[in-house]
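#random but structural
TW: two for the price of one
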Amino acid sequence: MDMARHTPRVLALALSAFALVGCGNEQPQALGTLEWDRIALPAPASEKIVRIDVREGQQVKAGTRLLQLELTRTQSQLDALQAQARQAGDVLAELEAGPRSEEIARARAALAAAQAEAADARAYYTRLQPLGRQRLVAASDVDRARAAAGNAEAQVRAAQAALLELERGTRIEQIAQGRSALAAAQAQAAVEAVTLEKLDLIAPRAGVIDSLPYRLGDQAPVGAPLAVMLVGDKPYARVYVPEPIRANVQVGSDARVFLDGRDQALPGRVRMIRNEPSFTPYYALTGKDAARLSYLAEVEITGGDSAKLPAGVPVRVEFAARGK
């Protein structure tokens, strides 16, 4: 729980506990309130609340629908991501299938055409060479014929390489990249699907609806608590142990819990106590000033009819004195 919300209560309970310790009570005791474990259900997305199915104070079972946020935008985003995942799957399938037979046939035809052009260019250059030596044609014409023949040979080599690439098929690195792209797209779609599912707020445990901070039509920011539940089989006493009796209170110590309006005490056991004090004066912690310290503790109720007790009821807890 947020300590800032309980600061006034902390100071009041701590000062009251100091007064009780100073009155000479036989049993060491501390003051506090009865509490239940609380869980907050945060908003998974900033969407408008379109339906509320429960009310504050209502007892609900695990799996009960509590409220629903607007689905339109998240559903559209999920549809887009799923389409991207299908596209990535199609690309991978194409890579794994390799080139089509028609592409290989086209590459072979391109190679044959390049070889024919190369043969024609070589023959022309061969015929032009003796004419050039006899100076019957210009030297520039011979040079152009030689360059054309060389270019045609390069075209043949390029067509041969293209055909060889198709015949050898897709590289394993390309297939690995395609699989990674598909996995990433599927993961993004899965995350969005979880977000869409969370827009229908479901009770994760059985308990009581303690508060619904937002109303129908509100649009809470991401992470804001849409519902707060009180859960658990039994409540516990949240008390502030004064420094003079801190040494006698340990985890596992037996205690008796007294509630305002009930004469009979409930048995309890200390389940947690802080090592750091909750209330510290601004002056030096020496001598009598040290008695102003208090330590937050939780005392679980181990018996009695406590399942229906409300949270926030003031309690007084007595601890067994050392040696008893």
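TW: number two ↓
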Amino acid sequence: MSSPSDKSSEAKCPVDHSSREVWLKQAQQQKQEQKCPVDHNSREVWMQNAQRTQPLEQKCPVDHKTQDVWLQQARGVGEAVECSSDELPTIPKYNTDVELPENREVSSIPRTGAQANWVYPSEKQFYEAMLRKKWDPDAIDMRTVVPLHNSVNERVWNCIKSWEKDQGGDACGGVQLTSFKGDSKKLTPRAWFRSTILGLSKPFDRHDWTVNRCGKNVDYVIDFYNEDDESMGPQIFLDVRPKLNSLEGVRLRVLKSLGF
């Protein structure tokens, strides 16, 4: 997604760009295969692999109906809603003359308090954000890294919508994304138990999203795992669930565990 505001010029997104190695590794694999970052023929395989890294109740396939949404070009950068800004949208300022697309794609994720969805960063925004973080990005990688980044965001949102199904959000038009933050260095209790007690791999990233359900905030936590699959190459798996920091989060987790 796009930058919080042009005050900081940071292209912060629900998927933390500090996980550069994971993104580039999978992007290179997909570029070599010349495939879309979301393999639309691999739902069954993805579901089977996901069972190894996320509990049964957290599984959810990529909703291919959202493909057209996140592949559509934004009507205009000046009209687009900034990804994490509560201020009026502004035209991004670029600091390089690298030739990369500046068009942005509209996500399927509604933004709280706005009659619009969040908007993903352009390839050029993504590239310049990596430069500001003192990385050495290859401009050509942006054509695969950015779609991959966007598709993972869509997968996260679809998982959250699965949790929110029949919880009352439809009464006001559906849940909306209020805010998000990433902290790749802070393990969730589940990730700590998996890695420390069970000896399984640690997630490469952790994010916290807050959604609005008819005026009520519900917090979610997401662990991102990567795994090399012999047949499919590098894969990203998600463990999405409500945080246990509120009675609502506890209620949702208990209901899921009971099969409701």
